[in-house]
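Hi support team,

I submitted a single chain yesterday and got back a structure, but I'm not sure I'm reading the token output correctly. Could someone confirm the output below corresponds to the sequence I sent? I've pasted both exactly as they appear in my results page.

Thanks,
R.
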Amino acid sequence: MHEDDKMNELGTMRLLNNDLREPLEEIVSGYVNCKWSVRYARDMSDYACHPCAIMSDGAFSVFAKFSEKPESTKQFEIEKSSLEYLSSHAEIMIPTPIGVIPLANGTLFVMEALNAIERDRLQWRQIGKALARIHRVKSDHCGFHMPNFFGPLEQENTPVKDWVTFYGEYRLRPRLRMAVDSGYLPSSLAAQVETIIRRLPELCGPEVTPTLLHGDAQQNNFVSTIEGAYVIDPAIHYGNPELDLAYVDYFQPVPEDVFDAYQEEMLIDPGFARRRSLWRISGYLAGIAVEGSYYTGMLADAVQEYS
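Hi R., thanks for writing in. Yes, this is the structure output for that exact sequence:
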């Protein structure tokens, strides 16, 4: 923590109001087994869909985020259990959860803070290796044993045997409805997505053994540290590993080191390049549902590839 992050700058931060600060300091004090109080903080809200910050007493730092949404306790409990699932099943590094704190006006989720570093070739390779480690975990069905969230959107994970059914019925159709309901999806573009859903058996490529997925594996959901790549904000389920591979460079390009390192552990089907945009359609629909028309052009470009 930098000392120029002064306490007199923290009054504008929602997280530092007494109704949130006091339970935060109480749970962290219990975790470290001594009195802990916030002396410094760095606002991280620009990197998330919730008010959040890294906070420190000068010796021990935590990352905390807050949500006022009615389902916030459920969402954070699912996020916590999903992180723990990745840690136990895929031996992936996760930020250590400290606790989910239900409050009268919302919910706090508190974790140990990570010391992020700039990425060079090694750090990009570590992301590829971490993703391959997740994909080594297999199942006999697509989906998961509980629903979870993709950003703020709840997603159903009803187990089914094949990926075509799961992707069409539990990813594309629900998000298409959300995007239509938002009012930002042109009817002509919605019709094109419907056509793609009907064509999924011919577009999805060879059937795959259902693989554990991060579910929202865009590059910012990996935190590079001296120890290696940590995973955050999962939307886990079992399915086609190409979904995660398509999301890694979803927002901006990544070096080929990510994919080279991945392929040292797991093969990437040669047809993946033809299907990359197909998997991103679900993300673009979610983006339209949450953020509006910003993603409409990207969705139009993606569906055009399969027209």
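A quick pointer for reading it: Residues 1-12 have pLDDT under 50 and may be disordered. Let us know if anything else looks off.

Best,
Support desk
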